[in-house]
Design brief:
Two copies of one chain form a homodimer. With about 350 residues, chain A is α/β, with parallel strands linked by helices. Chain A has three domains: about 5-50, lambda repressor-like DNA-binding domains (434 Repressor (Amino-terminal Domain)); about 60-160 and about 295-330, 3-Layer(aba) Sandwich (Rossmann fold); about 165-295, Rossmann fold, CATH 3.40.50.2300. Chain A has twelve helices and twelve strands. In chain A, strands 2-1-3-4-5-11 form a six-stranded parallel sheet, with helices on both faces. Strand 2 (about 95-100) of chain A pairs antiparallel with strand 2 (about 95-100) of chain B, so a sheet runs across the interface. The first copy, chain A, binds a DNA duplex (16 and 16 nucleotides) through helix 2 and helix 4.
DNA sequence: ATGAAAGCGCTAACAG
DNA sequence: CTGTTAGCGCTTTCAT
């Protein structure tokens, strides 16, 4: 049963029922009696306004899209959980998409979602530089917020880690312990955040009076295979680094697997600082020193930005498209036992 | 621009444009020429049929809801990824909800989603027995598929692990290594799957001629705190078990943390068999023996069932509601080094 | 304080 | 092969 049938049943007009059921009774000064009657009947007959009808009328369905490279990555699943929770509290649903860390999949998914008339989009862009993505964002009139990886030169506001400082912080752990030959396992060197983290580690070396070119670098992706082969590249060298920084959340897996293959003990033969806190980081032997992201705070900021933009774009058509706010959060150092003095 | 404006622009009727743009040109034998013109223009003007309008007409928006206890749990995030991928290929989007392992949250979320006129729902029920959930499913006309945890006595088909065998398999690892005093860390004892796994471990003990009552049991939830305190209960006993089975994916975290606190070496002082494969299970020291679930296959089956039900419920109104198919998948044993002989 | 009526954008039955 | 038309269910202006 829909609201017009309910209205007929009650002898009221659709408008009245609609007003009551969509919580605008006050606004239209519907009499207390009527409100009660309608609510009771709605309850009894299990009637709720059909969101598709309402959506058509309003031009919105109360859904925002969330496009992540891989929901399986703990960072993104935590993000998703926090975002969903926050949005739900304002009656907005989250539609999920995985771009599989693939830039062209990302583009085509974004295209589809743009078409679906969502209220807005939250995008964690795939690392690779993508002119196509940039221009889609630019051309679209949909409120979009970027997260995790800023995309310079777009109007979309972004929320991410203070990556350069974070990279510095990571390297400093190793330097402070006395390491001089350091490995760096990158994620996707094309992405802004990876680049920033990388520059940060170089900064730290420089500040310690070590030639940043001495950094042993490898890595070109987030998959198990890629991080594994990159780890091997770094750790199988004759002049093997005594410490390693993994710049992506997945990287630690490759580093651990390789260390295991080479029977390197941690931290005696290899010190590790890993980006992204994982539930198991503190629990394994030895507990891993990590650079954590304040995920929940970041999620909240994302939602705030999105809400602001959704209001803007619905009220003011020619909203200032150039504002491009970027927010950066400080990384958290979780100091544990995977860093020791070089042997 | 919408399709009727496009139609006017081109001098065609809305119907024609609609038919072309929704891929029914063949069906209505639209002339090749017209099709081309329309498609070109649609491309040029960036016109796609508004899904809300279409949704209103069809009564469906091409969205299925996915309700999981916690997207942060690797099992569920893998499931979500696989489900999303499969559904996407048939043009269906996934709407995500976290019930936060809370039964009443689950109910209210399900209520909301039922209201949102989704095409269907995939639910991984929270463990606790819930009459409310059962009856909501029973009363709803929406196609629903259950996953991970079957809910006996509902019409909804379900996909889950062959839990009892899996429990047996887990315990057998310990028994085969010679353990006789075994601990069992349960997840949510209220859930069907937990109960089955538990019964399985008891089966195994019995089969080995050991009194199942000797099993040292604890555990009543999935949170870090709960699994931690349960682990402590098991491992801090004077007659500490020499081996432990963790029945939930999260359990291993509690067990590891407690083992670490007590400075128990694995597997020398404590052998572990853990339910659910995690990316890091094989990589830590020692690699953990796990009982893995064939997540992707399970996801595929879920989607097949959902599709079947969606077709049924749209064609045949009084579809046989009693079919209640349940599918069970065999667990995979990942034998590694966390099981040794008791000291 | 309430009702009537005009669409929102689309699809599909019906009509050529 | 293509056009006309009648809604799908709702919100909201306008009218009272």
């Amino acid at each position: 049963m829909n609201i017009s049938e309910l209205a007929k049943e009650l002898g009221f007009s659709v408008s009245t029922v609609s007003r009551v059921l969509s919580g605008n009774a006050e606004k239209y000064r519907i009499s207390r009696k009527t409100v009660e009657k309608v609510q009771e009947a709605a309850e009894a007959f299990q009637v709720t306004p059909d969101p598709i009808g309402a959506g058509l009328r309003r031009g919105k369905m109360g859904i925002v899209g969330l496009l992540v490279p891989d929901i399986t990555n703990p960072f993104f699943s935590q993000l998703a959980r926090a975002i969903e929770l926050k949005l739900r509290s304002s009656g907005v649903a989250v539609q999920l998409c995985n771009s599989a860390e693939d830039s062209s999949t990302e583009i085509s998914l974004l295209g589809k979602m743009l078409t679906r008339r969502l209220d807005g989009m939250i995008i964690a862009p795939v690392g690779t530089e993508s002119e196509a993505l940039r221009s889609m964002i630019q051309d679209s009139s949909m409120p979009i917020v970027l997260v995790d990886r800023p995309l310079p030169g777009t109007k979309a506001p972004s929320v991410s880690l203070e990556n350069r400082n974070a990279g510095r912080l990571a390297a400093q752990q190793l330097l402070a312990a006395g390491h001089t030959l350091i490995g760096c396992l990158r994620g996707a060197p094309g992405s802004e955040s990876d680049r920033e983290r990388f520059e940060g580690t170089r900064d730290a070396l420089r500040a310690a009076g070590i030639d940043p070119e001495s950094l042993v670098v490898a890595g070109s992706g987030y998959s198990r295979e890629e991080s594994l082969s990159a780890s091997a590249l770094i750790l199988r060298r004759p002049d093997r680094p005594t410490g390693i920084v993994t710049l992506s959340g997945q990287g630690i897996l490759g580093a651990l697997e390789t260390a295991r293959e080479l029977k390197l003990t941690i931290p005696d033969q290899l010190s590790i600082v890993a980006f992204d806190e994982q539930p198991w980081s503190p629990l394994i032997e030895p507990p891993i020193t990590t650079i954590a992201q304040p995920v929940d705070q970041m999620a909240n900021r994302v939602v705030e930005l999105l809400n602001r933009n959704m209001q803007k774009s619905s009220k003011d058509e020619n909203s200032d498209r150039e504002t491009n706010e970027s927010y950066f959060f400080d990384a958290l150092l979780m100091e544990r036992s995977s860093v020791g003095s070089p042997s």
